[in-house]
Design goal:
By secondary structure, the protein is an alpha/beta fold. The chain has 19 helices and ten strands. The chain binds adenosine-5'-triphosphate. The site of adenosine-5'-triphosphate has 13 residues, from helix 10. Adenosine-5'-triphosphate binds next to helix 10.
Length: about 625
């Protein structure tokens, strides 16, 4: 109930925002339109009664001219109402979309985007947002039907109150049945949402260029197609069951309506034969009962449809009104330029209550101006640490401090404005080269000099300059980004993995004002010469900057001020390269293994392939 109230308020707010004048015009049109069918029925009755009574032609002129005028209105007004309704719908859906994605920006962390129920709701919310348009149209149609119905009820009551009562009472079960059906349908849509999202996933794989190589190489087409069709089959089964239920209920209701109308007709004809009703009354009665039944059916369907749309729209309202995913300080402390350093105090973290701990009490300090390298085996929690430093998640226990202030007391946007980062799984945007770098700091989007400097520092300027349109070349083969009719059709290009990595690095370099730099495997895709080159550049860039470097290339981290080895969720070793080599622990072991691999390959490990073990 509360959610329906909120959805109604939200929809009304959207209509209000879409334009009060337009809304008022639509309401006026609705009122006028709703009165037209009853007016036609009454005018027809007057004309028939006058004809039967052989009244002079002069008495027929007014009702006839009125009938013609009303006929014109009946023909023209729906078109005007349709245009106004569509225009209002367009404005409403634009505003709804904007509100939805503004609300999404409140989710400052990553956890919602890793929660299937949230993703299902988000998809329905996006549909609900565009449904705002049909919701508004349905609501106006509902109001029109209700008013028309009121006119017909009054007309039938004038001729036969008993008949009006029968028709109205017959409408009650229809209303209950339709609302129940609408609820069921909304529930079914929610139930099949995960199935439809999986189907979308398979569809995407079948058409995505990223998956195309493996799909072809491994012959995954039929396998993915079967899975896609299987998901479609599951949702179609649910829809079919719903349609069958609809069919049986609707046919029952139609039959009931036909029986009542037939009974009423027999009664009216007998009454006219007995002289209690005039011929005009019979025509009026037939029109009124048909109008009443049609209106009632329209009303019931309209209520059910609007109810169902409101239930779906409630997903939109839920997202728009949901609180931020991470607790935000009511009065956040300013995230000033880093002065003393970043500190992790006994940080415990796991991605969900039912998942194992990733960090089990990590205490680390990254003093201002120093570079800390974090190394460890796959899955040790290095990237998790980097994400916690950006406050994409909060520690489950313990805290992280920026110059002594808990990250939870800072505004996340303020904090992130002070960070620069290259992630292991950096994005490749289907944008131009210029925009691909500018996303690192959008204030530079029109400043090609700044973008070029960042690209030069990342060692990718030459590669970009040689592209057909230089920095304006689209780094995509999926979209046409610009339409310049005078020029040859623009052809996008894709960069190599290492070049993309340098573009990601250029994004970070563009934030040359950043106080704290996080580099998570920034050189993993580079050839040895490029890697050497990038590390020299990064070292130069990192000098007198506070930074966290994560890398499996131990040669690249040996110059860091301090190296932390993560193992079993804790810092197992901490110190400079020489110190850790002397300690002869995991770091020394990994370093020697890597170094020896360059001179002579390490012996292959013996694998126990006994399936019983
Ligand atoms: N979003 C997530 N949800 C659930 N578990 C996750 C998530 N991200 C990582 N993990 C798990 O957390 C653990 C640590 O992952 P993390 O990516 O931090 O390791 P890593 O040290 O960076 O590994 P690598 O060297 O392979 O990059 C892994 O067991 C991983 O499965």
């Amino acid at each position: 109930m509360e959610s329906t109230r909120r959805s109604v308020a939200e929809a009304a707010g959207l209509v209000w925002h879409a334009g009060r004048v337009r809304a008022a015009g639509l309401i006026l049109l609705t009122l006028v339109q709703s009165g037209l069918p009853v007016t036609v029925a009454w005018l027809t009755k007057f004309v028939i009664d006058a004809l039967v009574a052989r009244a002079p032609l002069s008495e027929l002129i007014v009702p006839l001219v009125s009938l013609v005028a009303v006929g014109v209105a009946v023909a023209a007004l729906p078109q005007v109402a349709l245009y106004l309704g569509n225009e209002m719908g367009r404005q409403v859906s634009l505003h709804a979309l904007d509100r939805l994605y503004v609300a999404m920006e409140r989710f400052v962390g990553l956890a919602p985007f890793e929660t299937p129920a949230f993703l299902d709701r988000l998809r329905l919310a996006a549909q609900g947002g565009s449904m705002a348009r049909s919701l508004v149209t349905s609501a106006f149609e509902l109001a029109r039907t209700a008013l028309t119905l009121a006119g017909f009820v009054a007309s039938v009551v004038l001729i036969s109150p008993a008949m009006a009562g029968v028709v109205l009472v017959a409408g009650i079960p229809a209303l209950i049945a339709q609302v129940a059906l609408a609820r069921r349908r909304a529930r079914m849509i929610w139930d099949i949402a995960p199935v439809q999202r999986r189907e979308l996933f398979y569809t995407h794989l079948l058409g995505s260029v990223a998956a195309a190589k493996e799909v072809r190489l491994f012959g995954l087409g039929p396998f993915l197609r079967r899975r896609m069709l299987n998901e479609r089959g599951i949702s179609q089964d649910a829809e079919r069951a719903m349609d069958r239920r609809d069919l049986s209920v609707q046919s029952g209701l139609e039959l009931l309506g036909a029986l009542i109308a037939g009974g009423g007709l027999v009664w009216a004809v007998i009454a006219a034969g007995a002289g209690t009703l005039t011929v005009g009354d019979v025509s009026m009665f037939i029109a009124a009962v048909a109008g009443l039944q049609g209106g009632l059916a329209g009303l019931v369907n309209g209520i059910a449809r609007t109810h169902q749309q409101l239930l779906l729209f409630s997903h939109y309202a839920d997202i728009v009104h949901s609180p931020p995913d991470l607790p935000l300080a009511a009065e956040p402390a300013p995230a000033g330029p880093l002065r003393t350093g970043v500190e992790l105090r006994d940080v415990w973290f796991r991605y969900a209550d039912d998942l194992p701990w990733v960090l089990r009490g990590v205490t680390l300090t990254i003093p201002y101006g120093q570079a800390l390298a974090v190394v460890g085996l796959n899955g040790a929690g290095k990237s998790t640490l980097a994400k916690l430093l950006c406050r994409f998640y909060d520690p489950v226990q313990g805290s992280i401090h920026w110059d002594g202030v808990d990250l939870r007391d800072l505004d996340p946007a303020d904090l992130r404005a002070r960070l620069g980062a290259v992630f292991q799984d950096h994005m490749t945007y289907d944008f131009s080269a210029r925009d691909n770098i500018a996303v690192g700091d959008l204030s530079a989007i029109d400043d090609l000099d700044r973008i070029r400097t960042a690209a030069v520092n990342a060692g990718v300027d030459e590669a970009i300059s040689e592209l057909p349109d230089g920095y304006d070349t689209a780094l995509t083969r999926m979209f046409v980004l610009s339409l310049k009719p005078a020029k040859r059709p623009p052809t996008g290009v894709t960069l190599s993995g290492g070049q993309w990595q340098r573009v990601a690095l250029a994004r970070a370099f563009l934030r040359d004002h950043a106080d704290f730099m996080i580099l998570d495997e920034p050189s993993s895709g580079l050839d040895p010469a490029a890697e050497h080159d990038v590390h020299l550049r990064m070292r130069r860039y990192r000098a007198d900057r506070t930074s966290l470097l994560i890398s499996h290339r131990l040669n690249a981290v040996r110059a860091a001020d301090v190296i932390a080895v993560l193992e079993d969720g804790v810092v197992a070793e901490l110190g400079g390269h020489d110190e850790l080599m002397a300690a002869d622990g995991l770091y020394a072991h990994m370093f020697r293994l890597q170094a020896s691999g360059y001179h002579h390959p390490p012996p292959l490990p013996t694998l126990d392939l006994d399936p019983g073990t």
